[in-house]
Amino acid sequence: MNATAPACPSGLSPPSASSVAQDPTTFVLMKDGVKSLDLVIKGASCGGCLSKVENGVSRLPGVRVARLNLSTARLRVEWEGQLKPRAIVEAIAGLGYGVTAFDPGKIDAEGVRAERRLLTALAVAGVGTAAVMFLSEPLWFGSDLPDEARNVLRWLSAAVALPVTLVSGRPFFLSAISSIRRRRLNMDVPVSLAVILALALSLYETITGGRHAFFDAAVMLLFFLLIGRVLDARLRRRAYAAANELASLQTATATRLGPNGRAEAVRAADIRPGDMLLVAAGERLVVDAEVVSGESEADLRLVTGEVEPAPTHAGRTLHAGAVSLSAPIRVRALAAANDSLMADIARLLEAGEQKKSSYRRLADKAAELYVPQVHATAALGFVGWLIFGASAAQAAYVAVTVLIITCPCALALAAPLVQVVAAGKLFREGIYLSSGDALERLAAVDHVVLDKTGTLTLGDPVLHNMSETARGALDKAAKLARTSHHPFSRALVKVAGAGPVAEDVRELPGRGVTGMIGGLSARLGSASFVGAQAGGGSEIWFAMDGAPPVVFYFDDAIRPDAVETIAKLKAMGMEVELLSGDGEERVARAATAADIVQWRAGVTPQAKARRIMQLEADGKKILMVGDGLNDAGALAGAHASIAPGGAVDVSRLASDCVFSGDSLRAIAQVVAIARTARIRMRENFALASLYNVVVIPVALAGWVTPLIAAIAMSASSAVVTLNALRLTAPRPSGKRGVT
Amino acid sequence: MNAFIFMLPAAIGLALAGLAALSWAMKSGQFDDPKGAAARILDETDHPS
C-alpha cells in the first residue's frame, strides 16, 4: 500500500528502508521529570539527514536533547513537559524518515559486555607484548650483555608478563576449564597449557639463572589470539543488532482494553494471558489469542503459508503473526508473547537446538586430533632426553619448548579468522550470520528445502490479468479497494496507484466492500457477493449497477530473481524442493514458475519438520529456507537454515542466518561463501600442521631459543591470517570474462 | 646498567599512559558514533549539547 520509498529526505543520498510509525508511548522512560525515548531512524544516512532530524526534533516544545547516532541509526530524545511522544515520531515521519520505537531491552547487553571484556584483555595484552618485547630485545641480540643486566631484564619481563597473563589470559583459562569439565577438548586447553607452562619454565629459568626465558612468547600468543576473539565478538554483535533491527520494524506493541473499556498501548512483552486486546484492521496479532467479538478475515500467510485469507468469528483461535484484515476484532490473549507458539512447534524447536549444540566444529575436531599428538610428542621428548642422560631440568625445557613453539597459535586462529572474514563479507551484503559454526554447516548442505509464501514468493499477491482488464474498471475498483486491508485489494491499489475513495464505503467481512461511485452502487468482493459465477482461484470481482461484473485474477508472485537463484543452486549440485502449507494449485504454479520439480502442497508445520528429519535420516544435509511460524520447526531441525528479514521472530531466531532485501540471491551467495570459507579453513589447518611438522623436530632437538619461538609464532600466525583474507578478494571465477 | 634505571621506568610508564589513554577514549564514547562524528564536523549549526 505504501508508495515506493522516497529518496534520502535530505537529498544527499538514497534511503535504506521505509517503515510505519507506531505509538511509542510505552517506550518512554521517566527520570527526575525528564522523559526520554530511544528511536530507530530508518533512512538517515548522511550528515544532511543528521542535522535535519536533530533540528526537526529540537524545535518541538520542551525538547532538551536530540542526538542521532549515525552509526547505529539511533536517536535519543530527552524532553520535559507535556510533549506527546507521538508528536516526536510524527515530526520525524513528516521529514520523510522511517521511525520505530527502540526497546532498550533488545540491546544485546551480554554481547556488549563480552566484547568490552575482550577488548580490555586485548589492550592489556598489546601493551604487555610491547613492553616485554623491548625488554627481550637485548636478551635476543645482546650476546655481550653482562649476566647482571640479563637478570634485571628477565625479572622485569616477569613483572610485566605475570599480571598481563592474569588479565588477558582469563577468557582462555575459563573456556579451557569449562571445556575440560564437559570432558571435551577445545583449542583453549592447549593454549592455556602452553601459556602457563611457558611462564612456569621462564620463572624457573629466571630464578636459577638459566639460559632462556619465554615471557615474550607467552604474552605474544595471548595478544594474537585475542585479536581474533575481539574481531569475532564484534562481528557477531553487529550481526545480532542488524538482525534485531529488522525485527524492530515489526509490531512490538498492542492495544489492551482495560476493565473500564479504556484502550492503552502496551508492549507485546507485557501482555498476560487473559488480557483483552483490540486488533485494528491491518494490525498484526502479537500473541496467540481467541476471538471474542468482531467478524473479520485473517491473513495467515506468516502462520500457515496460505495466501487466501481465512474468515474469523467469535471463538476462533488465532496464532501470533495473523493479521486481521477487514474489521477491528476483540480478542482474549491465550498466552504471553514469549510463549505464543504452538506447543508442537516449541517442541520441534527444542529438538533442533539440541541437535545443533551437539554439532562438532572443525576447530574442535582439529583440537581433538592435535592436542594428544603434540602433548605425546612433548612427553616423548622429555623421556627421550632423560634416557640420553640429560638432567630433568633440561628435559623439561625441551618438553615445554615443544608445547610453546607448536603453540596452537596458528591452529587456534585458523578457523575463527576465516569465519570473521566471511561473516564480514556477508554482513556487507545484508546477510547476518548468527554464529561462526553456522558457516561450516552451511558449507555442507546438498539439499535445499524452500517454503513458498514469503520465501520463494514475495508473499504479496499481484494482479495477474491486467492486460485483459479495462483500465476504467480498474480505476473504479481501486476506489473501493483503497479502503480495504485485504491483500487482493492492496494488490489492486498497487497497480492503480494513489487516488480517490468511493463514498459510503462499508466492508462486509468475508464477502467484500460496497460503496457509491458517481451515484451508482458498486461492489468489490467474492463472486457470490457480486452475483457472478466463481471461476475458482485467487480472484475478486467488481460490479457496478448496470454493468457486467469484471474479474481480477491474482498470483502470488515469485521473487524477481528466484528462477536465477534456483538454477544457480542446482548448478552448485543441490537438489531443490518446495514445501508449502498453501493450496495445491498455487504451489504447483509457483513450482513451475521457479523451475522446481519436487514440491508438496498443504504441508502442516509438523509434516514440514518430519520431512526434514526424513531427508536428514537419508544422509542428506538440508538447508531450510522459510519465514513463517509453520517453518520454525523445520528451520530448527535442518542442518542449516536461512530466513528472510520479514520472517516471524521465532523463525528468525531458529535460523542460522537472516538476509535483508527482496532478493533470493542471498541463498546462493551464503552457500558459495560458506563453501569457500570451508576451503580456506582446511587450508589453514593444513598450513598450521605443516608448520608443526617443521618446528617439532627443531624443538625436540633442543634448539629453540626465545627468538626462534617469537619469529616462528608470528610467521605462522601471519600466514593463516593472510590466507583468511584471501576470502575478501573477488573469486577468480568472477574475474573471467572481465578484461 | 645505569641507563636501565631511567629507560625502563620511562618506557613502561609510556606504555601505561597509552593504555590509560585508550581506556579513557573507550569510556568517554569516542568510538560510539564514528560516522556521526565525521558528519558533524561539517555541520555549521551550533549544537549546545
Let me know the number of strands of chain A.
27
Cα-atom radius of gyration of chain A: 32 Å
Could you say what the CATH topology of the largest domain in chain A is called?
Rossmann fold
Uncertain residue segments of chain A: 1-7, 12-21, 733-739
Largest sheet of chain A: 7 strands, mixed
Helix/strand class of chain A: alpha+beta
Fraction of helical residues of chain B: 55-70%
Helix content of chain A: 40-55%
Oligomer: heterodimer
User: Any guess at the CATH architecture of the largest domain in chain A?
Assistant: 3-Layer(aba) Sandwich
Write the element-wise H/E pattern of chain B from the N-terminal end onward. Answer: HH
**Average pLDDT figure of chain A:** 82
Shape of chain B: rod-shaped
**Main sheet characteristics of chain B:** none
* Largest interface (C-beta under 8 Å): A-B, 30 and 25 residues
Structural notes for this entry:
- The complex is a heterodimer of chains A (739) and B (49).
- Chain A is of the alpha+beta class.
- Chain A has 5 domains: 25-107, Alpha-Beta Plaits; 109-231; 253-340, Distorted Sandwich (Calcium-transporting ATPase, cytoplasmic transduction domain A); 432-459 and 559-674, 3-Layer(aba) Sandwich (Rossmann fold); 460-556, Calcium-transporting ATPase, cytoplasmic domain N.
- A 7-stranded mixed beta sheet of chain A has the order 15-27-26-25-16-23-24, with helices on both faces.
- The radius of gyration of chain A is 32 Å and the shape is elongated.
- Residues 1-7, 12-21 and 733-739 of chain A have low confidence and may be disordered.
- Chain B is an all-alpha fold and 49 residues long.
- Chain B has helices at residues 2-27, 34-40.
- The longest helix of chain B has 26 residues, at 2-27.
- Chain B is rod-shaped and about 60 Å long.
- The relative contact order of chain B is 0.07.
- The chains are: A alpha+beta (739), B mainly alpha (49).
